[in-house]
Amino acid sequence: MNDSPQHPSSKFGAAFTPQPAAAPAADAPEVLFYDVIVFGGGIAGLWLANVLKRAGYNTILIEKDTLGGGQTLASQGMIHGGQKYTLEGAVTQHASSIARMPERWEACLGGYGETDLTLVKYLSDSQIMWPAGSILSDLAVFGAAQLVNAATEKLKQADIPDALKEPGKKFKGAVYSMPEKVLDVRSLVAALAAPLKGRLFKGTPSEVLPDGQVAVDGVVMQAQMLVFTAGAGNEDVFKMLKIEKRLTQRRPLRQVMVRPLPQALYGHGIVGKPKPRLTVTAHPNGRDGYVWYLGGNIAEEGAKMTEDETLQFAKRELEAVFPHIDWADKQWATWAGDRAEPYDDTGQLPPGPFVQQRGRVMVAWPTKLTFAPALADRLFDKLQERKIEPVYKTEPPADKLAAADIGRYPWEGAAWRKI
Ligand SMILES: Cc1cc2nc3c(=O)[nH]c(=O)nc-3n(C[C@H](O)[C@H](O)[C@H](O)COP(=O)(O)OP(=O)(O)OC[C@H]3O[C@@H](n4cnc5c(N)ncnc54)[C@H](O)[C@@H]3O)c2cc1C
């Protein structure tokens, strides 16, 4: 059923103003009107669509592939509080704005926040920082811990994760624990998708106009605002809007996966360098321990190498950092992808969530999973500034577009091999 006010657009490209019903021209393609159409079903789009739905906006979300299947399910699921970024030597603007996010997530996970995330599982309620190299790195860990405001705590020997210790021996060096959760991201995607049931569709926009019109797999739609939270796909929107200026960047990464590991580990191994030597998260591997998913310097260096070279490099790094673990009998795989990020007006990576607007099209990046709530705030405020209110009652296009499914983790279906 489509009982919303109809705009008399005789063809794709007509000007748009929400207005009372008028009969469309006989030869006009059917145009479906919504308050907001969100493109991209990663964390940013899903979070925003929940906010809009709760506020009464008639919102649908269009995902090109699978929900979460871009960067979101490939992420390490760490809800950062700024600590990692203090390794760059100072409490940057980036770090201080990130620092406010964990308490907001905490409220949602606890069931007293803006979005009900009580069904989200978390893999760990803390992350550690440990010296993963020379004794100098011990100082680096200490220095980083001193710079942060959060309740960072030096772990007693007994509380240091077993994965760091040779059985029966003590770990040499200081290990700090940060009360920041590591989420099971797929359960997060599922929790955000559930309230949007019937509003999440699979489709690819082929034409986008600044007045809020869009063609998706032959279905013409129009909204008071189109919001693109399409990660790497945001580049395509600028092309469709014929904006030449370079507004996006991609930072390639090659994450390394290794299994099976008997113990879990969540944290950042630090050396004297500003970036972690490696960032480790652990994910249940059926009945056989864990898959370790490795980011940090391993993934950044790996992006410059072939897969074979990356795996050899990762193995050498792991042998150096965890000499007590036998790395010879493991299976290995990689996930290569980009962090899709914006450039701000000065050509820099902005310190937090970022929005570009052209007419009735907004293009947005959270820049971190952690920042999705802050991005949704910013987008919602922009709708309010433009006095965009819920108007349309159009039914979701379930008869025209297929429902979008939830995607897979990189380690599911990866090409595992011995090296
Ligand atoms: C390896 C890795 C590890 C990370 N670890 C962390 C971490 O631990 N903590 C943290 O806070 N952040 C982390 N990040 C960053 C975080 O994952 C991203 O900032 C965040 O997931 C971006 O979310 P998004 O919704 O904007 O983009 P995405 O998750 O990429 O979602 C965009 C979606 O848009 C879809 N799409 C693309 N083009 C179109 C189109 N034209 N129309 C419709 N849909 C389209 C894609 O299929 C995709 O599903 C990590 C990133 C990577 C790559």
Q: What do these coordinates show?
A:
22% of the residues lie in helices and 25% in strands. With 419 residues, it is α/β, with parallel strands linked by helices. Strand 13 and strand 14 (278-284) form a beta hairpin. The longest helix is centred in the last third of the chain and has 15 residues, at 307-321. The relative contact order is 0.20. Residues 39-45, 62-65, 69-72, 74-78, 80, 204-205, 229-231, 233, 236, 253, 255, 295, 337, 339, 365-370 line the site of flavin-adenine dinucleotide.
Notable features of this structure?
419 residues; alpha/beta; eight-stranded mixed β-sheet; 18 strands; binds flavin-adenine dinucleotide
Low-confidence regions: 1-16, 83-90
N-to-C terminal Cα separation, in Å? 57 Å
Number of strands: 18
The largest sheet, given as strand count, sense and whether it forms a barrel, is: 8 strands, mixed
Strand content: 15-25%
Please give the share of residues in helix: 10-25%
Helix-strand sequence? EHEHHEEHEEEHEEEEHEEEEHHEEEH
Give the structural class: alpha/beta
Number of helices: 9
Which kinds of small molecule does this entry bind, naming each only once? flavin-adenine dinucleotide
User: If you compute it from the alpha carbons, what radius of gyration comes out, rounded to the nearest whole angstrom?
Assistant: 23 Å
On the 0 to 100 scale, the average pLDDT is: 87
